[in-house]
Design a protein that fits this description.
This protein is mainly β. 0% of the residues lie in helices and 38% in strands. The strands form three sheets. Strands 1, 2, 3, 4, 5, 6 and 7 form a seven-stranded antiparallel β-sheet that branches. It has a two-stranded antiparallel sheet with strand order 8-9. Strand 6 and strand 7 form a beta hairpin. This is Wall-associated receptor kinase-like 15.
Amino acid sequence: MIPYPLSTGPSCGDPNYFSFNCNTTSGQVSFIAPSGTYRVASIDPDTRSFLIQVNDRGNPRLNHSLPFNLTSPRNFSTEVTDEVEIVWKPPREPICNTSANCNDWSHSTCKSARDGKRRCLCTFSYRWDGAMLKCRKG
């Protein structure tokens, strides 16, 4: 299962994180970067990180417009591949079309945001916590 905000398509997750492909037959997840496609070894939503397998012993080039960062040299080497850890930035509020799309996000409603997109924006006296993925009192 690919956790929010990571996305395999325009209708799931956050479109800004649409950098993943899932083979429905094998269940294998791949990360799509400007330098190529990499096998995802694991995803940890608690640390907002995932490991990719790199065959050329080099770090993949990430497009700076993507919401991901390579961690400092933390490669997990094997004879054939390195596993490189990548961390994703906390997401903005979820994209929506109607308020029904915000039902899973308590204390939010679908409204136009500053970026011109419709998002599940927190209601009065709540603010978005991208690390916790919810609207929090505050």
